[in-house]
Automatic annotation (TrEMBL):
Domain of life: Eukaryota
Keyword set includes Signal: no
PROSITE patterns: N6_MTASE (PS00092)
Protein name: EFMT1 methyltransferase
Length: 213
C-alpha cells in the first residue's frame, strides 16, 4: 500500500528554518511587548496590514485628531471611529476623560478591544448591530480605506446613519469634491501625517467649526 505521506509537499529545510526564525521573532516581539508593560492601545500595537489598505497616522496627527474629537463631542459625548483605528487608540489613552468611543473596523484583530469593537465592512454600510442606534454619536471620525468614490459614498451612508451631525473625514485631497457632495464637508487647514509617507496628499474635512483650521 502507498504511504499516505508521499503526496504531501515537503518544505525544504531552508524554508523551515526561515519560518521558525520568523515565528521566533514574532514571539520575541510579543514577549517584549508584555514585558515592557505594553500598552495595547498604543499606535503600532497592531501592525499595519497593507493588504487591507491600512496606514496609521503619525503619533502627533492621531493625538491632534483625538483631541479634536473629544472637544467636538463635548462632555459625556459619544465618538465613533470608522476605519480610523489609530485615532481610537489615542482616544483610549485619554483615560478618565468623560466620553465614550466605538471602533468600526474590518480588521478583526481589533476585536481585542472587546465590546467597543464593531465589525464593519463598507460594502454593507448599514449592516450594523441593533444596539448602534441611528444618530447616537456626537461626532464620527472616518477614514475610508480606499480613495474611490464608491468607497466614500458607502462609508458616507454609515457616517450619516451614526452621527447626530458632526463629521470629521480624513481622505485624499483628490476627494474634495466627492466629500462635499456626499457629506457636505469642507477641507481644513490641518494636514494629517502618516507614520509612513503616503504617495497621495491627505487632508481633513469637517462640517462644523473645528479646531483644525
Amino acid at each position: 500500500k502507498m504511504d499516505d505521506d508521499d503526496d504531501i509537499p515537503q518544505l525544504s529545510s531552508h524554508t523551515l528554518a526561515a519560518l521558525q526564525e520568523f515565528y521566533l521573532e514574532q514571539q520575541q516581539k510579543e514577549g517584549m511587548k508584555t514585558s515592557q508593560g505594553f500598552n495595547q492601545y498604543s499606535i503600532g500595537s497592531i501592525e499595519e496590514d497593507w493588504q487591507l489598505s491600512q496606514f496609521w497616522y503619525s503619533d502627533e496627527t492621531a493625538s491632534c485628531l483625538a483631541k479634536e474629537a473629544v472637544l467636538a463631542a463635548g462632555k459625556g459625548g459619544r465618538i465613533a471611529c470608522v476605519s480610523a483605528p489609530s485615532v481610537y487608540q489615542k482616544l483610549k489613552e485619554r483615560d478618565g476623560e468623560d466620553f465614550s468611543v466605538c471602533i468600526l473596523e474590518y480588521d478583526r484583530r481589533f476585536s481585542v478591544y472587546g465590546e467597543e469593537f464593531i465589525f464593519y465592512d463598507y460594502n454593507h454600510p448599514l449592516d450594523l448591530p441593533e444596539n448602534l442606534l441611528p444618530h447616537s454619536f456626537d461626532i464620527v471620525i472616518a477614514d475610508p480605506p480606499y480613495l474611490s468614490e464608491e468607497c466614500l459614498q458607502k462609508t458616507a451612508e454609515t457616517i450619516k446613519y451614526l452621527t447626530k451631525g458632526k463629521i470629521l473625514l480624513c481622505t485624499g485631497a483628490v476627494m474634495e469634491e466627492q466629500a462635499a457632495k456626499h457629506l457636505g464637508v469642507k477641507m481644513c487647514k490641518f494636514i494629517p501625517k502618516h507614520s509612513r509617507n503616503l504617495a497621495n496628499e491627505f487632508r481633513c474635512y469637517v462640517n462644523y467649526a473645528s479646531g483644525l483650521d
